[in-house]
Amino acid sequence: MPSSVLAERPLTQEDTLHWLALRMVPGVGTLAAIRLLERFKSPQAIFRASVSELEAAGLSPAQARNLASGYSFDDAVEQQQRLLDVGAHLLTLHDPAYPQRLREIFDPPLLLFGIGRKELLSSAAIAIVGTRRPTPYGLAATERLSADLARAGLAVISGMARGIDTAAHKAALAEEADTVAVLGCGVDVLYPVENRKLYEEIGRRGLLISEFPLGAPAYPQNFPIRNRIVSGVSLGVLIVEGAQHSGSAITAKLAMDQGREVFAVPGNITSKMSWGPNLLIKQGAKLVQEWTDVTNELPLTVRRELVLKAQQKVSEDGGLPLGPPREEPEEPVKALARRLLSCLQVDVPQQLDKLLETFEGVSSSELIGALFDLEMSGLVRQLPGKNFVKVW
User: Fold this and answer.
1) pLDDT exceeding 90 applies to what percent of the chain?
2) According to DSSP H, which parts of 70-176 are helical?
3) Is the distance from CB of 381 to CB of 350 less than 8 angstroms?
4) What is the pLDDT of residues 230-277, one digit of tens each?
5) Mean pLDDT of 103-129
6) CA 388, CA 351: separation in Å to the nearest integer?
7) Which residues contact 350 (CB under 8 A, 6 or more apart)?
8) What does the alpha-carbon distance between residue 132 and residue 142 come to, in Å, rounded to a whole number?
9) Rg for the chain (alpha carbons), in Å?
10) CA-to-CA distance for 59 and 65, rounded, in angstroms?
11) Which residues share a beta bridge with 232?
12) Whole-structure pTM over 0.85, yes or no?
């Protein structure tokens, strides 16, 4: 989109109404709307055009009639009121605050609905995505890499889906870092429902965005559409786990098409959840074992920016720079806890009864107490069914 058409003044209520009406015209998609804007320069001018002018601009007769009828203004009025009711904001394709990286993709969203800090869309960001049914290894890798990249100064972007997405957002928030959730429904719609606390926290401390109108349900077909935004606003996409034809594989393909860096965490060759990232690595994706495998591939200007942010953080806190290695707990763990830690694995959960058999002569209360100490130290995580894994 040429910079000459970018708005330099805040949207008025009339501006907002016309943008919303253009978005709500039945049968007129993103690419058709962009072509109309390139020709007529503004939504107001589009709605003033005749049916014959709209057809000459490339619309079908049915599309032209739908637009010229003005019926979409009824939906636009409702959307405008919803924006006020939920405290959401609107970014148009002509808004200077619209993220430049997203503007440059093949089919940028006409509008972005948001709740939270819209300035995060201009941050240096990395997307972290993966399966909704991760293994313990996948969760551990996600939490470690998301936290490390967040401490390094990158915003973490994901889709707030179950599994890897949720783990990436939570790890960034735990580091008091920036995170952006790109939704496959309206930004005022909670999905999945179990992520209510995460949804509220991102809306308060980070940013929730969507191209779907307020109130739009989370239809399955929406998620592949939203994935182009996940990759579009990011410098690169990190795939942790996913099957060959999963949503994360779609996001990786979109990232490649958009000229973004693609990263993947290698996995066990016997696990179907590792098929996607392992295949991407074979096809040329950057293999990631630690956070620097990602940052080393970013543009020089971004790396300099991250260094400056780290230096500023050191100056403000008087402490060590952001980023790993993590510090071990100051208090030494007890002998039994040490033995447990050497026995537990990152990717293979071990059941409590099995651990009791392994540590002969140790009572269940002693073992549970040692496991509790390790959990409180952040070294061990308990999974459903009294299974335990080591935190990477």
Assistant:
1) 69
2) 72-86, 100-103, 136-151, 164-174
3) no
4) 999 999 999 999 987 888 889 999 999 999 999 999 999 888 999 999
5) 96
6) 6
7) 343, 344, 387, 388, 389
8) 12
9) 24
10) 9
11) none
12) no
